[in-house]
């Protein structure tokens, strides 16, 4: 038996808008250089990826990505400075939640592995 901690954020209406999926998607945007390529690398439809990013941006009130349209050099996406900062904070928050939950698990259940 092992604890599992899932960390996600809710908007003002109580709807989930950010969690591991959007987090991994945005990390992939940074490495792939485009939302379309990031979505493809995760086996996700581009329209779903775009919807996830837009929903998160709407809930947060700021842009996570900066998109450029195609042309001679092609289009792409990258994280905004504020987007990078948000991802760093989310990762730190998720890690602290996971560690806290592991500590509580060990207090309650002991080492039942």
Automatic annotation (TrEMBL):
- Provide the species name: Gemmiger gallinarum
Entry's Gene3D superfamilies? Winged helix-like DNA-binding domain superfamily/Winged helix DNA-binding domain
The organism's taxonomy opens as: Bacteria, Bacillati, Bacillota, Clostridia, Eubacteriales
Q: Which residues form the HTH lysR-type domain?
A: 24-84
Q: Which Pfam families match?
A: HTH_1
Q: Which domain of life is it from?
A: Bacteria
Name the record gives this protein: LysR family transcriptional regulator
> What SUPFAM superfamilies does UniProt report for this protein, alphabetically?
Winged helix' DNA-binding domain
